[in-house]
Amino acid sequence: MFADAVAYGIALAAIDRGLTFRARAATMSGSVLAILGIGVLTDAVRRGVFGSAPESQVIMVGASISLAVNATVLYLLGAYRKEGVHLRATWIFTKVDVIANLAVILSGAIIWLTGFRLVDLIVGAAIGLYVIKEGFEIVGEAKEAREEAR
């Protein structure tokens, strides 16, 4: 949630600013997202090494609430995602949240139905890698926008 607040704050700061500033804001958002992905991936590895006991129903409830909020925000941002690289970065950030929420719900359901707890680590690692990829995508788009601004 803190990372989302940072991304939204960065995007708000870039409104009514020049293209170079907006591109820098998108670069910051992409960097935050990539760092977040590294953290998620690291946590999945940590849980794999030291063990974890995911509570499937708690995971599913939390992810479902988060999904409702993130899906609403994604819908609202959809109309603005082509209004600038900084807003596209925020839209991608939120899209990542929605996809991660869906993956966590699926993971929780699999654990609940089968007891196969390893899926938590697999999904966690996959989410981490996906988040890193999207962070680098944002940084790449921001770089293109900076080059266009010159």
Automatic annotation (TrEMBL):
Record localization: Membrane
InterPro entries registered for this protein in UniProt: Cation_efflux_TM, Cation_efflux_TMD_sf
Native organism: mine drainage metagenome
GO function terms (MF aspect): monoatomic cation transmembrane transporter activity
Residue ranges of every copy of the Cation efflux protein transmembrane domain listed in the record: 26-140
Topology in the lipid bilayer: Multi-pass membrane protein
Pfam families assigned to the protein according to its UniProt record, in alphabetical order: Cation_efflux
Descriptive protein name: RND OM export protein
UniProt keyword annotation of Transmembrane present: yes
GO CC field: membrane
